[in-house]
Specification:
It contains 19 helices and eleven strands. With about 400 residues, it is an alpha/beta fold.
Length: about 400
């Protein structure tokens, strides 16, 4: 891709009314690939002032411009409706009743701009008995079943170590928006796209959910080992822990050879995948006994040489020090005018020939208000009036 070639989504204008994590995660996918994203933030300093320099905010809100706008006042809402006339995408993650109160529901916005694609993320869905509830990731993890299958057997439910329903909902919404934009190219009509933390959480259960929907089996906690296959999990070594996966055929035979335990392959309890899964506690004890003889680094080298998927269990600092992670360049540099030189995560998707880069740092509140409003045809006098009236 030539330096002056536009990025794949550079023809899109996106209005971003999202907060917290799920909504900004969806927007980040569009912004990273070139969409002109206008982040519309509340004007009041007590709302916008805190947290704009935290690692979380800086990572989530890169590649955007910021316009502060008081949407509780008619003049502010009218200005946003004017912007909707030109927008391609409008995204929000308010509780469903709030957008109707403010006049940013699908019925209203699609009447203003029939080609608009609107995206929404809620806690539990746009309708139904829980629709008016506020939702956050941990609530969705509990309600959606994730905590029941996470953790060591017998210790009680455990939350996943990342905001998994937030991130997944954001990714799901981004996919839905791109699908709707593809359809619009044929029909000229926009579409309303929505998901929820609860739906994304249940979707992330994947095969664990299928164990219930298909076989009516309630999956228990399985700790650091795969719940239905073995051996596949985390094991103790002489100096720490490692992960390995060798539940099938040739890889299972290779593991027995690397461990110098041919007797395991001959043991009738471990003679096939079903038997190994059935007796995986006993098998895991035997594997751990063998692995305690050498260091994690020794075992990882030996197993990968034998074609056995394996790796260390890193903390976050060790992850970013890993040579493969460094090679991938997923920690991208950016200069923030207030924070200085930092690194944030680039987009994890790679489009061959398209640079994945951080074009601009997360904006300060209202940093681009004047330039944005000038682009929408307002005069300097009108902008001054909006500022004097405390609309922007």
């Amino acid at each position: 891709m030539a330096p002056d070639d536009p990025l794949p989504l550079s023809d899109l204008l996106v209005l971003d009314l999202t907060i917290a994590r799920a909504g900004p995660t969806a927007i980040r996918q569009l912004a990273d690939w070139g969409a002109d994203v206008i982040h519309i933030e509340p004007r009041r300093p007590e709302i916008t002032g805190a947290g704009h320099h935290t690692p979380d905010f800086l990572n989530l809100n890169r590649n955007k411009r910021s316009l502060t706008l008081d949407l509780k006042r008619e003049r502010g809402r009218a200005l946003l409706h004017r912007m909707v006339e030109r927008a391609d995408v409008f995204v929000e993650n308010m509780r469903p009743p709030i957008k109707y109160k403010l006049g940013f529901d699908w019925e209203t916005l699609s009447a203003i701009n029939p080609s608009l694609v609107m995206g929404s993320i809620s806690g539990f869905g746009q309708d139904g008995p829980y629709a008016e509830r506020g939702g956050v990731d941990q609530i969705a993890q509990g309600l959606g079943g994730m905590m029941s299958v996470t953790g060591i057997p017998g210790q009680g439910p455990v939350r996943a170590g990342v905001a998994i329903s937030d991130v997944t909902a954001g990714l799901q919404l981004a996919v839905g928006i791109l699908v709707a934009l593809h359809e619009r190219a044929r029909t000229g009509r926009g579409r309303y796209v929505h998901t929820s933390l609860l739906e994304s959480m249940i979707g992330m259960l994947d095969f664990q959910a299928a164990r219930w929907t298909v076989a009516r089996e309630v999956p228990p906690q399985a700790g650091n080992h795969h719940p239905t296959l073995g051996p596949m999990g985390m094991y103790e070594t002489a100096d720490g822990y490692m992960n390995l996966a060798a539940p099938w055929g040739r890889i299972w035979t290779a593991l027995c050879q690397v461990l110098a335990r041919p007797d395991l392959e001959e043991d009738p309890r471990f003679s096939g995948p079903i038997e190994r899964a059935t007796h995986r506690d006993a098998l895991n004890d035997e594997i751990t006994l063998a692995l305690r003889a050498r260091t994690t680094a020794d075992w990882v080298e030996a197993m990968n040489a034998a074609g056995i998927p394996s790796g260390p269990v890193n903390d976050i600092a060790e992850t970013f020090a890993d040579p493969q992670v460094k090679h991938l360049g997923i920690a991208a540099p950016v200069t923030h005018p207030s924070v200085g030189e930092i690194e944030i995560l680039r987009n994890a998707t790679n489009l061959e020939g398209v640079p994945s880069e951080i074009r601009r740092p997360a904006p300060e509140p209202g940093e681009h208000s004047d330039e944005i409003l000038l682009e929408f045809g307002l005069t300097d006098t009108e902008i001054d009036s909006l500022r004097e009236d405390e609309i922007i």
